Structures are given as structure tokens and as C-alpha cells.
């Protein structure tokens, strides 16, 4: 008598067939990645650039924490770990009495610009600090950078280095307290900052440009709050006391909940650009929510704010925006750009210029990283190609590119080199597991 095949057996065979096909596809992709010599070349170039120190790029002699945070992992492979440790701690030596962390620093006597708002410290009398106060990511960038340093080196002693009578870990806690006291909306329970283009450091209204002033419109955006969530993940990991762990966990959960509640537009599967604390700088006729912030969205994915389905949707949206704009790569800052005359005081108000629709590998590379992390490896490999190709063509890691693919800004921009190096390593690690 012929045996009847059960529904369960049919389902099992189908699933096995699908899994086998997926495994074969993964194996083919893994082999493609492992044999891509272009990735080898760009990774080697990135390591060469990052072996030369910590300044942001050839056009920036200063050490900036928001940049350092994005290339520290590769720096740990190619540079003195003792020097990296000292550079991280220098930011805490220059910490202000209110807990504020500077953007960056230089040796005294090496200041090459006229800034009356320099930062000094009685603990470190050899360096001078500076800060673009329109931003709210310096404190969180330092916490993240120290977290990456510890993950690579296992040197937890850095957290207990005594600086002015306080441990480094205590000082990191003070830096978060600074944000909660000075850059926080109690109405929304989210961080605030000046109104900038996505993750940028140029305020919309012009005025003091990189510094808050009487023209500043305070707002909430996803980038600053995603950076806080990532930093809090580190603080939870650093904490030895259960009370500290609970404090940071509660703040993280509250921030994530409110970021979704107030900033995520589910109908358009995108984050709104800004939530204004006390009035918008734009005319009522302007619909700012038509603008899609790419960089802040990539960091939001890293912070765990989006589901896997939502990640696929926003990646598709970004690719559509790249095509519509004519931009070279997924590094497109935002789309559509802010209209040129919507805020005539800003120096970067031209469409597709600088942070207003320029193409930045510094953030495009972060999107590639998150695609790999979340299992979209084919997409990551495809989308990194234009970024890789332009590095090879120009033989530099430029700061940004215009719509025609022309390199702009600082060359050998270490932030770009760092995020691409990490993206390549992530692709290679995945490929080695699936070959």
C-alpha cells in the first residue's frame, strides 16, 4: 500500500529546499566578497591613512571626538594603543566643571583660527579645547569611543583612571548629566540641539554658524537621541553598581520609547526632521517633513530603533532618493535638499552642497555597516561599490562629494576611511562564516 505523504513532510521538504537555496546563495556571495580585490585595496589604504594619527583629515589638524569615534577601531589595529588611550583621556582632562565634553583639542600655541570661546582646564594645561555648540553628540561620541576601545583591548582600567579626583567612569556619568541639565526637553524627554541639517554642525539660521546664539531654534532630532541610546548601552555595560545599571537602562528605554513616539512617522516609514521646542525657523508654508534624513536614520538603526522590516523599507527609500537626486551613493545626506533661500543666513544653503544634500561616505559607510549587521549583506555589498570605486578613482578618502561625483572638502578624511574600513571588515567576517 502506497504511503500518504503528510502535510508536515511537505512543509519540511519545502523549508529544507528554501534553506539549501539560501545557503548556496550565501556561499556564492561570500566567495564574491572574499575574492573582491578592490575591498583589499581600500582597506589597506584606510589602514595607511589611519596609521598617521588622530586628526580628522588633511584639512583638519585638530583631534575631534565625533570623528575619532568612527575610526578608533581601525586605529587600534595600526597605531599605538597607549597613544589612543591617552588621546581618549585627554577629552576627560579637558572636561568642564559642568560636565561638558569638548568637540576636540590641540596643543596650546597650535590654534589656527580666531575663536574667542576656547575651553581650558586646570587639570590639563598643555591643551586647549573647542566645541561646535550647535551639536549634541560630543559627550555621547566619547562614551562610544571608549566603549569601542575597551571592546578591542579589554583594557577596562581606563574607566578607573583618576582625573582631578574622579574616575573616568564618574566623569562619563557627569557628561550625561550635563546633557540632561542643558540639552533636554522635559516635555518630550529627549535630547535637544540647535536646528541643523540632519547630523550636521551648521545651524539653519546662520548667525554664529557652529555656535548657539540668539538666532538658534532649539529642536529634537533622531540623530542626537540615537547617539545617546548607543552611549547608554555602553554605560550599562560599564556599570558595576546595580543602581547605576538600572539608572542607565531606564534612561535608555525612555529615550527609545519617546524617539519612536515623537519622531517616527510610520505612515511614511521615516523620521521627521525636527520636533521644535519653541517655534520653527521655517515659514508655515514649508513642509519640512518631506525631507528625508539619511544619516540620522542609519544611526537610529544602530541604536535599535527600527525593526528588520522597517530597515528594508528605509533602505529602499534611500536608494530611491539617491536615484531621484542623481547622487553618487547611499552617502547622500538628505533628500530633497532644503530650498536655497529658505534660510538665507546659512553658508551651506545651496542645494546639494555640503550637509544640504552632499554625499558623505562618513555616513554612507555607517548604513553599509548596519545592513550587514541586520542580515542585508547582498544589499550592503551592492551599495558599497560606488563608495569603494570613488576611493580607488581619486586615491583619497575625501570628506564629501557633489552630485557629479566631484570630491570636495578635506582629503584623507579619517572618518570616511574609518567607516569604510569597518564596513569592509564586517563584510569579510560575514563571508568567512558563510564560505
From TrEMBL:
According to UniProt, the name of this protein is Glycogen debranching enzyme C-terminal domain-containing protein
Signal peptide (from-to): 1-23
Iron-sulfur as a keyword? no
Entry-linked InterPro entries: 6-hairpin_glycosidase_sf, 6hp_glycosidase-like_sf, GDE_C
SUPFAM superfamilies to which the protein is assigned, alphabetical = Six-hairpin glycosidases
Domain named Glycogen debranching enzyme C-terminal is located at 137-391
Tell whether ATP-binding is among the UniProt keywords.
Answer: no
Please list the GO biological process terms of this entry.
carbohydrate metabolic process
Query: What keywords are annotated for this sequence in UniProt?
Result: Signal
